[in-house]
Amino acid sequence: MDDFYKEYILDHYRNPRNFGHLDAPTATAEDLNPLCGDKIRFELLVDGDGVVSDVRFSGKGCAISQASASMLSETIKGEKLEDVARFSQDRVLENVGIGISPARMKCAMLGLKVVKSAALGEIARWPDEELSH
Amino acid sequence: MIAVRDPRAEALALDFPLLAQPTSRGKRLAYLDSAATSQKPQAVIDALVHYYTHDNANIHRGVYELAERATDAFEGARAKVARFVNAAEPAEIIWTRNTTEAINLVSFSWGLANLGPGDAILTTQLEHHSNLVPWQLLAAKTGAELRFIEVDARGCHVLDDLDEKLRGVKLLALSHVSNTLGTIAPLDLVIPKAHAAGAVVLVDAAQSLPHFAVDVRALDVDFLAGSGHKMCGPTGIGFLYGKRALLDAMPPFLTGGDMIREVGYEHTTFNELPWKFEAGTSNIADAVALGAAVDYLEHVGMDWIAAHERAITAYALERLQPFVARGLQIYGPESIERRSGVISFNFSDIHAHDLASILDTEGVCVRAGHHCTMPLMEKMGWPATARASFYLYTTERDIDQLALALEKAAQVFKVA
What we know:
The complex is a heterodimer.
Chain A (H helix, E strand, L loop, with lengths): L6 H8 L12 E7 L4 E9 L5 E9 L2 H14 L4 H4 L4 H8 L8 H16 L13
Antiparallel strand pairs in A: 1-2, 2-3
Chain B lengths: L6 H7 L16 E2 L10 H14 L9 H20 L8 E4 L2 H16 L5 E5 L8 H10 L2 E5 L12 H4 L3 E7 L11 H10 L3 E5 L11 H4 L3 E5 L10 E5 L1 H6 L10 E4 L4 E3 L13 H17 L1 H23 L3 E3 L11 E6 L4 H10 L2 E2 L1 E3 L4 H7 L4 E5 L6 H17 L4
Parallel strand pairs in B: 1-13, 3-4, 3-5, 5-6, 6-7
Antiparallel strand pairs in B: 2-8, 7-8, 9-10, 11-12, 12-15, 14-15
């Protein structure tokens, strides 16, 4: 687990990308992880072709949730909204690059859950096979 | 440096087999989460095994020897708990699953029968959700008003306006010790005033019973709730103490078998105390094992435990002090006289969860988050804190290991 706290994770934690708010977002969602009090909000701007043209996120929480959200904000820019709605947890794990302990998966996946909720227009639920805890 | 290398604590730690278990990384285990649940001494584990191996039968109605033995063990454990808190009689101890269920019993039984519009419930801003949510619901159901004794920035009770706050209060419900900050409530000041104002007093003793002697009659508390698993006992067993006059007048909470005297198709008369409140087959084995936990605590000595924890807390505060200049913030009462063996903290800009993850890699178990006190965290402006909590088996070595692990966290997060 200590291996998780790589230079780039700490960089995203302390200097989050796309942090803040959009003037007129097309889609928004927010959620919290009641376990740790982490809170994340995503605001998306979707253009006429259904592509995410801009994104901001806000909130506070641990390095894992904040760095994951920051990296995710970079990943989804330029993606089609319908593809974002289908993002799997693997996309986040690819981003962070390092194994995450089961106890901290919820932290890592909070940003993804919020982004998918924004894209779907309803609360995203993981398929059964991903509900490991 | 205060010398607390107490050979007795090192020896007592050997009574707890789990503490000898290294982590998967091969680190020595420093268990600093006893406020969440205590570890169990071998004597308690043995009592559980003994009960199931030799004494198991259903209680109260069996006429055979085995059932009598099970009943004696079960009621014997009740008598031990009664003596432990200095209740007037064992019948004033009602078995519950835990503190939460004991509080809910009072809320549903006493509360619904005694509260109405125009009445008030007074609690504090420190409370665990278990001593807050039941009162929110009771207030909503009865039309009673819910009020709060405020706490200052160090988490100490503000009592300047207590007389005013107590006006119209029918129930004062407060924790003896804060699970988040370790604050010890000034019960000797508050309870007489509450009684003078005509209020009944419930004390959540989940965080005090394990750590120092609690005397319900000296405190003159009306209800007191406790959990076995925080005081060396098993999970799934707790209790409610109540003064007989109050309990006698209360309607049953859960209903069914064992709590009845006579049942007809249309009408039922209820059993006497304490069984009136114990519907269904009780958690017999865990109650018996909690009796063994009480024996263990009395053998160690509650006064020794209190003194040891005070010394360990003082040592920990001293060991943490050098980190303060590097951004460590320690919360809770400044005076060691006003705090129990609980230290909540944050370190630089490291989120409490990240801190706990890194400490875990060094074998140090601390809790991180809101500690089931979300309103308190919101009031204080802390998204989360890390919390180290101590017990009779906590040693100087555990604290030294915590300090070393904090140094590791500083390295990982590049805290200067």
